[in-house]
Amino acid sequence: MLAFIIRRLLQSVLVMLTVGFIAFSLFNFVGDPVSLMLPPEATQADRDDVRKSLGLDQPFYVQFGTFLGNAVQGNFGISLRLGRPVSQLLAERLPATLELAMTAAVFGLLVGIPMGVYTALKRDKWTSKVLLTGSLVGVSLPNFLIGIFLILIFAVWLGWLPSFGRGETTAIGFWTTGFLTTEGLKAIILPAITLGFYPITLIMRLVRAEMLEVLRTDYIKFARARGLTNNAVHFGHALKNTLVPVITITGLQLGAIIAFAIITETVFQWPGMGLLFIQAVQFADIPVMAAYLCLIGFIFVVVNLVVDLLYFAVDPRLRVERSGSGGH
Amino acid sequence: MHSLAVSTTSSRLKSIVAALVLSTAVGASIAGFSADAKTFRWASQGDVLTMDPHAQNEGLNNSIADHIYEPLVSRNRQMALEPCLAVSWQIVNPTTTRFKLRDKVTFHDGTPFTADDVVFSIGRSMEKTSNFISLTQGIKEVRKVDNLTVDIITTGPNPTLLDQLTQLRVMSRSWATKYNVQRPQDFKNNEETFAARNANGTGPFVLRVREPDVKTVMVVNSNWWGKRESNVTEMVYRPIKQDATRVSALITGEIDLVLDPPLQDLGNLKSNPALKILEGNEVRTVFLSMDQGRGELLYSNIKGKNPFKDVRVRQAMLLTIDVNALQKTVMRGLSLPTMSMIAPQVRGYSKDLEKRPAVDIAKAKKLMTEAGYANGFEVTLDCPNNRYINDERICTAVAGMLSKIDIKIKLNSMPRATYFPKIQNSDTSFYLYGWGVPTFDSLYTLQSIIHSKNATGDGEQNYAGYSNPKVDAAIGGLKTELDVTKRTALTRDALMLHQADVGHIPLHHQVIPWATRKNITAVHHPNNQMWTKWVNVN
């Protein structure tokens, strides 16, 4: 057990190091931040001076080493664009991104599960076929296009919802929330739908497939033989057993939603981490980009680690140490 | 039990009554306020980087800073100089100008404005971490004479001193000392400075809310010394990065003015009855530069010599590039095609700089043959793709035009973050550049772009190595000449010689459209600056 956990942890560290390294080496190609920080009229001496003070004149491995050392202590330096500590910037943006991601995930579950159940039970109905085909469109349309369509329909034509921003937010300690004002609630609807589109279709298809599988098993046949009502069979027995993989996938999907939020946040000017990242890219704001990529990598690694450990607890087969290195 | 119920009912009744009274009172006060409360909301692609008036010399930052902070000398609606924090000035001797300061002006925190603040602020803009050093060129020292008088000492006679001063904004010395922000943003100390998110100036608007990348809110300064020409009581600036979203927000009325509507949407916006477009040219000239310094081009198939050194090749290119076609197709009519390196608003401009030879491919081909390039040559054109309006498409069109005289262009377009370092190292043979003139004086262009590069800072941005001693001599005269007529003549001399050399190929002055709601009146500023003090919401 302990060996398993240690192995997993070591692997996670390795993954984080790789993410850090790749992120950091990419930055050599995004351009020179100094030319954006200084006016075009600045002299070469001024530029060299700033470059030196930022440590940009050091060789690559020294820069990377310094970066790792500081990153472990949670210090990602200062944003070249905004002149503020990166950790502080990310902490400010985290609530916006998490609220959006959570809403999108909940939305995905609330819409995706009923749709999945429906299409599994009413397999041959034309409505099911429409939903399935529609979900294909949902998967294949790019996120920003869905967002722009929604803005066009609900903000420009109907005028029901705001086209951008987060509305009024309320601060609770370090956390700012948009859930406590009508404006904030109205503002989250369109971005959450945009971001939730993919999870909806994914969950719907997953639930449908699992449902169809479960409905074929013996205990369902037995339940029917016992004379239970259709509702009791479908929702009491079949759906319950379907949800285990669904919840796992949703958990893993959460990491992806947070990462995908970049596009949705840009379309809706949602002041989260994704928007911060996009602006950092344009400005060659290396500290922000590095910190963001590492943070997203970290979220993925943690979610995976938790899922792995949970499996270990749930599935007894994993607990049996395999002897030798196996047959392949 | 019963009595308890009564007491809760009665207390609830009381609170309802109280709430009613309160709400009517509040309602009345809101109604009273809303009669003249006007909120003006505007947007553009990016956000202001800092509230510090000396940390970022960039268009949007300067726009926002001008709401809060004021310079000694400002510009009126015709872009002519007018007194601001200084009421008058006179030249005491060739290197000293004396400024009388405005009396009874207070900063937003209530402290009075004095000569100490001027000495402090100009000194602050000359600090190493300031972004405004180039605008303090020639200023040696600022001396306090008395509480409301300062002397500015220059290294020599300085004809552009007043123009430079329009960009040097005044902070409160005591406030800066109190919050330890005596120097502009310093990236070396890993902390945010107080002045980056707080502000205290003398200007017509007071900073209320600053949420980076979300919004910046200001309210009108009721103690402002100036005469109010705007009915706006609250100003909200919101960055909206995505073009489609920004335009949508304008159409839905969530935003009143967009500073940078995408060109492809202008047609739709114009036909929308709720909107209108304000157009005007920016003081920014877009031109092509050819490496004339090196003996062999870095990026060309011609070895051992540099075709751009031959004036006939440059003339042939000038005869081939059709700036009117560029204006019609690439710029959708939104540019002022030009032969001049300076825009009409720049002091020293004259109409006769605009004579451009008509497009003549046959003559151009003949010149190419005479120069020994009958079969043309290959060269790489470096081009930014997110700096000037339609920059990459301009380059593509130019490449197509030059192919007519067999100059084969390899287009190398890149984002500004990689483009500028490359150009600043002169690592180029042929490039597209745009040059704005914040001082509204021709010297700014002539000295940086056209003068030969030397150790004293002339030709700082002359990356193409253009050099003509006669042109340099005229520019040298311009540096210390104070008489306006003589300055225009010197500018004309320098630019005419430069034109005869085809030192650069000017394309156009950029035209900037703003999109607003119909009920907004705003003044289009040739520096592309949005000043709410000239905005009215009807």
Question: What's this model, at a glance?
Answer:
The complex is a heterodimer of chains A (328) and B (538). Chain A contains twelve helices and two strands.
Descriptive overview:
The complex is a heterodimer of chains A (328) and B (538). With 328 residues, chain A is mainly alpha-helical. Chain A has a single domain, classed as Orthogonal Bundle (MetI-like fold), CATH 1.10.3720. Helix content of chain A is 73%, strand content 2%. Chain A has twelve helices and two strands. Chain A has helices at residues 2-26, 33-37, 44-53, 60-72, 86-121, 126-140, 143-157, 182-215, 218-225, 230-268, 273-283, 286-314, and strands at residues 170-172, 175-177. Chain A has a two-stranded antiparallel sheet with strand order 1-2. In chain A, strand 1 (170-172) and strand 2 (175-177) form a beta hairpin. The longest helix of chain A has 39 residues, at 230-268. Chain A is globular, with a radius of gyration of 24 Å. Mean pLDDT of chain A is 82; it is low at 323-328. By secondary structure, chain B is α+β, with helices and mostly antiparallel strands. Chain B has helices spanning 2-34, 59-68, 115-125, 161-165, 173-178, 243-252, 266-271, 311-320, 323-330, 361-370, 391-402, 416-424, 443-450, 469-480, 484-501, and strands at residues 39-44, 73-75, 81-83, 86-93, 96-101, 139-146, 149-154, 205-211, 215-220, 234-239, 257-258, 275-290, 335-337, 377-384, 407-414, 430-436, 504-517, 520-521, 536-537. In chain B, the strands form five sheets. In chain B, strands 1, 8, 9, 10, 11, 12, 13, 16 and 17 form a nine-stranded mixed β-sheet that branches. In chain B, strands 4-5-7-6 form a four-stranded antiparallel β-sheet, with helices on one face. In chain B, a hairpin with a 3-residue loop joins strand 8 (205-211) and strand 9. Chain B starts with a helix and ends with a strand. Residues 1-35 of chain B have low confidence and may be disordered. Chains A and B meet through helix 2, helix 3, helix 7, helix 10 and helix 11 of A and helix 6 and helix 12 of B.
